[in-house]
Amino acid sequence: MASEIVRRPRPKGGGAVPFQRLLWRFSWLRPLLLLTPPLAWFVLVYFASLVLLLITAFWSIDPFTTQIIQVWNTNNFRVIFTEPVYRAIIGRTLLMAVLVTITDAVLAFPFAYFMARVASRRVQTILFAAVLLPLWASYLARVYAWILILNHSGLLNWSLQSIGLPPAEIGYTNTAMWVVFSYIWLPFMIIPVYAALERVPESLLEAAADLGARRWRAIRDIVLPLALPGVAAGSIFTFSLTLGDYITPILVGGAGSTFIGNVVYANVGIANNIPFAAALATVPVAIMAVYLLIAQRLGAFEAL
Amino acid sequence: MSSGEVGPAGWVRLGCLTAAALLAVTACGSSGTPTGSTLADPPTAKMATPTSIGAGEGQLNLIAWEGYVDDSWVKQFTTASSCKVNAKYAGSSDEMVSLMKDGGAGQYDMVSASGDADLRLIYSGDVRPMNEKLIPDFANFQTYFKSPPYNTIKGIHYGISLQWGPNTLLYNTKKFVNPPTSWNAIYDVANKGLVTVPDNPIQIADAALYLMKTQPNLKITDPYELKQNQFDAAVKLLKDQRPLIKKYWALASEEISLFQNGEVTIGAAWPYQTIQLKAAGAPVADTIPTEGATGWGDTWMLGTKAPHPNCAYLWTAYVSTAKVQALQALFFGETPVNTKACAEMEALQAGSCAQYHADAAGSYFDSIKFWKTPIAQCGDGSNSCIPYDQWVAAWTTVKG
Question: Can you give the pTM of this predicted structure?
């Protein structure tokens, strides 16, 4: 009945919605409440684990029972910095990350350029699907597929021999790792480069053409500098993903293919030497910190 | 790009931080490391063992190697004892050690640990003594496995032996028309790029075993008790071997596919790989070379805080019987410790008893050096041997 639907005025200063009043009175309360859960998550789960990692790195284990001894010492870091094998492993991991990043950048740029500026809408969609499709398949399945291609009696050697060339013995070598890493992380480079290239204004290219610049000149002086932040953004993925990987070296690598991740894994899983693993794990963290600083200077974060 | 600017001051700050961190790292000295010794009593040595098995508690929680708790023999046990078996499969000895932390924490009853984990479990106080008199088939065990040094300390049994297997030399019979008789084959430059060995620090013991025979001046008596110079020689042998290695295998399946693809022609393996490869029609055979071989022996160990000890004893007695021993041996490709299991194996698969050396004479076990945790204490009582954590570190330098 209509007479019953009487909208009563809110009592002045009353507590119908005291919470909202509180938020209105203390304007800093709303962002605080909004940010508390993600901040707590970040501090507790993300930051605290990093701090724990750093602390554990300065402990040691009882070599017999492998129980952690909480006595401060810097033995782990001394070993990492003085033992040549760890320098070699860190160097190999770093070099591979750089090589894979360069390879992916070189491969991704023309592809992304074609996708963003040449292909028709329809072709663009197909190419997008083609780039993203491998990501739907398991990482392991894709690595195993490469083992089948690269091994002694695999597709590669079969193809080479059928056209009369000598077999390429690259199965279980660092070359194989380079090929597999470059393949696996390629989509992570193509997407940001594509995004950067798509944002290059057509008008700039027209202006360049008006001023007499040929196509290559326009690409060199306009497209490339504007795409650089995209490449830098993509390189964060390819670089960090390669730097932290330990599965591909196990499956595709041969003798002398150990990565930082493998040593960490062996120390956690085999030796139970968590302090040493923690100490070694701080190395990629430090490398990434430096890398991110460089990427930031190249404008990577604006392109993400 | 303004947010990307790091001014000179920023770089200086960063540099100072780095320098400070480096100083902190190098300034502090190293601390002494505690060492283990089997002369000391394990923490649980004084724990009393039961004199009879009571009624089952209805449950049994096991940590086991995959394939060790198979329905084909578990069902009968559950029916007979009304102990429901829950198994958690572990992938490595170290996973077993970490799962059994704090005596199984009142959750796990038993673990089927291998010799390289046993001393760690015993000296952490995670497992407790067992009364072998409650296991009727114990009397039928191969003498060696009644009190092997990896699970028995000062006459106290910290578990009951289960099964064992040797680490064999596997080779392609087409490439090796004359079967190799020495481990020399995997250290021989003639086989460059065609060798595979396990990705496991305990491989250092295999090198030491080879050096025991080929370099007697090193005076190695036990491949798991290596003094610094002996250890260095074994590690050097393995480093020299690296250029010959196609791949260090981590999973048995990896080695199987390496042999199937013709990627390698010789390597260190378990009998399991030989059986699988032969079944797949690959031209392979294995042998125990003249230098002898290393081997692994598994033990059912009882957690210090096991919540279902009666079911645990019932289970141990059951898996020690000849029939179950034979079933498990053929299922997994390993050898029973119960000598009576030989006839059962023959009944299931003719010729298998001899194939797995289940009928081996006592002297055979002198040629097998069973895995045990390398510890600082040597057989001569001194503390100059290289403990396991250094084996792991050295293995990293071997693989490079």
Answer: 0.77
For residues B174 and B177, give the distance between their C-alpha atoms in angstroms, rounded to a whole number.
6
Where are chain A's structural domains?
Answer: 15-56, 82-303
Q: Given CB atoms, is A78 within the 8 Å cutoff of chain B?
A: yes
> Cβ contacts (< 8 Å) between B388 and chain A: which residues?
63-64, 271
Q: A174 CA to chain B: closest CA distance, Å?
A: 12
CA dist., res. B219 & res. B228, Å (int): 12
Q: Are A279 and A57 in contact (CB under 8 A)?
A: yes
Give the tokens for residue A218. Answer: 């326009």
Q: Beta strands of A68-178 (E only): which ranges?
A: 68-69
Shared-domain flag, residues B229 and B311: no
Query: What Rg, from alpha-carbon coordinates, does chain B have?
Result: 24
Number of domains in chain B: 2
List the domain range (segments joined by +) for residue B355.
59-158+297-363
Residue of B nearest to A256 (CA): B400
> Measuring CA to CA, how many Å separate A202 from each of A109, A113, A118, A215?
18, 13, 12, 13
- Answer for the pair B70, B181: CB distance below 8 angstroms, yes or no: no
Residues B131, B274 share a domain: no
In a domain, residue B2? The reply is no
Min CA distance, B119 vs chain A (Å)?
Answer: 8
How far apart CA B138 and CA A71 sit, in angstroms, is 44
Is A302 an 8 Å CB contact of chain B?
A: yes
Tens of pLDDT, residues B316-329: 999 999 999 999 99
CB B347 within 8 A of CB B150: no
For residue B229, what pLDDT is reported?
95
B180 in any annotated domain: yes
Predicted pLDDT at B236: 96
* Averaged pLDDT, groups of 10, chain B, 400 residues long: 39 41 36 47 89 92 89 92 91 82 90 91 92 94 91 93 93 94 95 92 94 94 94 96 92 89 92 87 92 93 95 96 93 89 90 83 83 85 87 89
CATH class of segment(s) A82-303: mainly alpha
